[in-house]
Amino acid sequence: MHGRRSSKSSVTAGLVAGALVLAGCGSSASPLPSTAASSAAIVSAASPASPTQPVSQASSPASSISPVSSPSASGATTGRLPVGRIVFDRLSGGPEGDLDGLFILGTDGKEQSVTLPGRPGFAYGVWNSDGTRLLLDTFGDATPSTVGILDLASGNVTPIAPHGLAGGLDCSDWSPDNARVVCAYGSDQKTADGLYSVAVSGSDVTRLTHSPYHDTVGSIGECGGGENRGVYSPDGKHIAYEQQRCGTGPDPSSDEAGSIVVIGADGSSPKVVVPFGGVRTHPGGEISWSPDGRLIAFGTQDGVLSVVAPDGKGLRTIPVPDTGGGSFAYGPAWSPDGRWLLVSIGSHGVSDLWAIAADGSRSIQLTADDPAEAYTDWGPTPS
User: Is 104:111 a contact under the CB 8 Å cutoff?
Assistant: First the structure.
């Protein structure tokens, strides 16, 4: 399987189902036509050469770059979100654990629980540019993969189900004009695996890449290889994404490796900016493009928060606080003003959300719960 929980073999069946399904909370899932809307609720809570060619890793100029460390982290505090709103998952047992819910947190420190259609085993939300809608990815063992747009005011979910791609789609970001989303696709056939640009109506689909890497099943494990986790540049002219190459052993996820590639928004001119082995591919390994377009943030396989320019230059690390349970950081998301990065920090299945100043000089702990909080995005407060 492609995407954010790609090492968890138990969800694979949900990704190869043939129809997009969205069902009301508490009911069994049922197919909807692509134009139908399903209901969700928000409840307040207390507290390369061409788009068709695979990218050549040998052409990467980044393979000789060594990370440059930022100053040591300091100024750790516990407090509220400094700007905008965040959306995140809360899971029991780490980023591959059981979904406890999808939540929204604002500067007032109060959480909102998003009631998801169909009771999925996993969900991921991404803000549109004005903070009024969420691009919603859900799937589970009992339900197929679903993609839709959640309107926060009405609670309605409008499915995105392009012909021929429904059921294996994993969408990760909006275009700046909110007209399109970038999605990964994975299937048993493999010939369709790659990145796609999809109109939010689902009526227009442009294939961007042909992935040379695919889901791999070993004798004792599985790895979700492919091309995924795409994010648009702020001007909409480029897309950064991860390539995930599986290992060859009995558990191909144990030695999987990932790279970051930047392409034109039409799939042209691919450029490797972080070579294989430099980026986290295991669950929670999102990447994020800064609002000014100058940096791409990511976590390494070893949990080091890092940034790099879109041309592969200036790779450096950003320090994060040691939480007592460790300082493993993953899943960064830039704040709307570009001054902060939202990350999950922790270890042993428990992680909390922190806002880290872009220069590493300050950090604010935002949550303090036993479950893991991950799969984050940071958006604006709607006007």
Answer: yes
